[in-house]
Amino acid sequence: MDIAVIGTGYVGLVSGVCFAEVGNNVICVDQDIQKIEKLQNMISPIYEPGIEQLMEKNIHAGRLAFTTDLADAINQSELIIIAVGTPSLPNGEANLSYIEQAAMEIGKAMNSYKIIATKSTVPVGTNEHIQMIIAMNTQQAFDIVSIPEFLREGSAIDDTLHPDRIVLGLDNQSLAEPLTELHRAFTDQIFITSIRSAEMIKYASNAFLATKISFINEISNICEKVGADVTEVAKGMGKDKRIGSSFLSAGIGYGGSCFPKDTDALIQIAGNVDYEFQLLKSVVEVNKSQRYKVITKLEASLGELSGKVVGIWGLSFKPNTDDIRYAPSIEIVETLIRAGATLKLYDPIAMDKFRERIDHPSIQWCENAMEAAVGADAVCLLTDWEEFKTVSLSQLIFIMEQPILIDGRNVYSQEQIQGTGLKYYSVGRPDLIGVSRPKTLVR
Ligand SMILES: NC(=O)c1ccc[n+]([C@@H]2O[C@H](COP(=O)([O-])OP(=O)(O)OC[C@H]3O[C@@H](n4cnc5c(N)ncnc54)[C@H](O)[C@@H]3O)[C@@H](O)[C@H]2O)c1
Ligand SMILES: O=c1ccn([C@@H]2O[C@H](COP(=O)(O)OP(=O)(O)O[C@H]3O[C@H](CO)[C@@H](O)[C@H](O)[C@H]3O)[C@@H](O)[C@H]2O)c(=O)[nH]1
User: Fold this and answer.
1) CA 225 to CA 231: how far, in whole Å?
2) Which CATH number is 2-193's, of 3.40.50.720, 2.60.410.10, 3.40.50.620, 3.40.50.300?
3) Confidence (pTM)
4) Does 18 participate in catalysis according to the annotation?
5) ipTM score here?
């Protein structure tokens, strides 16, 4: 099929590249000239493992191209995929201005019948709104479908090439066959439903995953008080097939460009029809407070934070991405700066993006994890990057001012900590090294 993808963020770029990889002709459009220039030179504007190799392969095969010329891309294509951003408005509602702009431009450019698919995460009813905007701007016939995207950053290519399911939301049943055929290259788990249900499936899925995370984080807070180990609790729970083992890792809470904005948006969607989504409101509140557990643990072990040196390992909201949108690290770093601490920051990939967001005289930018620990009164691990798992922990006692390690992602095992001399505080786990936690930590 000939496909145009509007927007080359994570979703647009990865789905464009993957549609090309399975044999379609894809042209990706963005209004950001700098992004398109990079892409035309086979440089990915996002950090995503494997993306540049796939881009290069498919550009050379003549199946993938990039342009700023939306009208030209639309006129060459049968299927138009909308993958522009839907960020939060200050009240939590989804900002649909990019969607509306794209719909208007598509309508104006259309020269023949098109299928228009929305991959952006949009509130229920938005596809009908898109349909109306396009209809106001064209005389051509067209159909609208909702194909929500479930990829995760950091594993986006594999998630797209081998998804658990594809959801096709369509009201014109004659589209079921060609769109099923198009997606069969990825999976045969294709679920066809109405447009409104498809829109809701996306929000409900993210809200449910966020709920699992906040649930296990609350369990971890209780575990700390009763002397249980949340990692064992999660393992034991996860063996029940009805519960499942994924998304039960306790830590400093979820961040990223999706869960925070989509949970807020779903609360608003419910509110707009006079329904108070109490459970989801609590999920969001629990998540907001969970990151401050790092600060509480620092205060409990160091006392006054003013004048202390704190090393930070990891800034991105999760490993294998340089995305810092809504990363817990942002508020943790801001709080520590306000408290008068000196910070030594290190992330394998996200340093530049973080520095664009927060730069301050109290911050020292480090080249590696060890450098961030030199002279530190404590090190806090905020992102579970693979490289932190293999750091030489036994060296820390020699280079740190005080041997305090606060692990916000439960990365290290008892065996790894044993004999390092570190005072090790993690999330929802009892003392792991025989070095007693200060009494104030046992809340
Ligand atoms: N990031 C993810 O992992 C992920 C996963 C699933 C779903 N989603 C959803 O997909 C959507 C896109 O997310 P993202 O992270 O890829 O967004 P993004 O904000 O990173 O990228 C959007 C891109 O669209 C471009 N754009 C905006 N308006 C345009 C227009 N009229 N014409 C051409 N280009 C235009 C922007 O310049 C930008 O490059 C959002 O609704 C998001 O919620 C994101
Ligand atoms: O057990 C867990 C699992 C995740 N997280 C955190 O949750 C956040 C989100 O992680 P993840 O879901 O892996 O990354 P995203 O790329 O944000 O992907 C989510 O958001 C996307 C955008 O909507 C969806 O497409 C995906 O299906 C959905 O998983 C990160 O901060 C993780 O550290 C935890 O704290 N504990």
Assistant:
1) 15
2) 3.40.50.720
3) 0.95
4) no
5) 0.98
